[in-house]
Task: inverse folding
């Protein structure tokens, strides 16, 4: 029985590898014939990587990116660097949104410095909805949260959906803060970050939820919360949020940064 299970697993693995190898070819043929579907689901990280490289290679005008979650993984940054620099050298405009907490990540700052020198424009904000990449206003790559491992992606080509996603990007962009390549830490955005944490505390959100929303580790977020509580003289997280609201420390929106 164990031998039979092993044999079947090997057959499944081979079939999955063959399908993953064919999917980028399908994308290329479909694009060339102008028969792209409104949406497509990609199930594996390998296929997503191939499609991203292909889309970046075809991109001619502008790429818009949202990268939530604070500092990015150094390996993924290194993988994206050559792709980004290649687009920038071809004259593609590049705008990217990070969360304020990405400023505390040295690998992210180094990446921002490199792409900024090549012409990219990077900004940060307190919260971001989810990861998104839009190529030339024609193709959006979104995370597919229905996959078991969370590594899948959804390709969107439908014009009305793309227009909505681009308007969402522009709304966030207009109120975000420039990410200077030579800035260190949370310079110029620390007060915005604290106000966001306070606002979330006022809703009764748990530490884990607050940390995820602002792109911090739970440990670092709890350190910020402790500092906020001490400064407000609060005995609990919820009380800190209430006191902050009473003192008008939780504005709904910060002033736009241009």
Result:
């Amino acid at each position: 029985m164990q031998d039979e299970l092993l044999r079947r697993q090997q057959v499944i693995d081979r079939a999955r590898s063959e399908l993953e190898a064919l999917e980028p070819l399908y994308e290329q043929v479909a694009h060339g014939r102008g028969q792209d579907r409104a949406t497509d689901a990609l199930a594996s990280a390998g296929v997503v990587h191939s499609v991203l490289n292909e889309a970046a290679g075809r991109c001619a005008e502008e790429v818009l990116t949202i990268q939530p979650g604070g500092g990015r993984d150094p390996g993924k940054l290194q993988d994206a660097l050559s792709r980004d620099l290649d687009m920038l050298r071809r004259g593609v405009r590049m705008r990217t949104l990070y969360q304020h907490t990405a400023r505390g990540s040295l690998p992210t700052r180094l990446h921002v410095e490199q792409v900024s020198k090549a012409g990219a424009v990077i900004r940060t904000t307190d919260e971001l909805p989810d990861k998104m990449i839009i190529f030339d206003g024609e193709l959006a790559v979104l995370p597919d949260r229905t996959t078991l491992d969370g590594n899948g992606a959804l390709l969107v080509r439908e014009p009305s959906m793309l227009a909505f996603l681009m308007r969402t990007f522009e709304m966030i962009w207009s109120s975000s803060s420039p990410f200077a390549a030579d800035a260190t830490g949370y310079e110029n955005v620390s007060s915005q970050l604290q106000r966001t944490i306070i606002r979330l505390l006022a809703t009764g959100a748990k530490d884990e939820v607050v940390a995820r929303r602002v792109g911090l580790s739970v440990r670092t977020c709890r350190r910020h919360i402790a500092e906020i509580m001490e400064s407000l003289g609060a005995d609990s997280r919820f009380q800190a949020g209430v006191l902050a609201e009473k003192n008008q420390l939780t504005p709904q929106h910060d002033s736009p940064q241009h």
In short: The longest strand covers residues 93-99. The chain is about 55% helix and 15% strand. The radius of gyration is 21 Å.
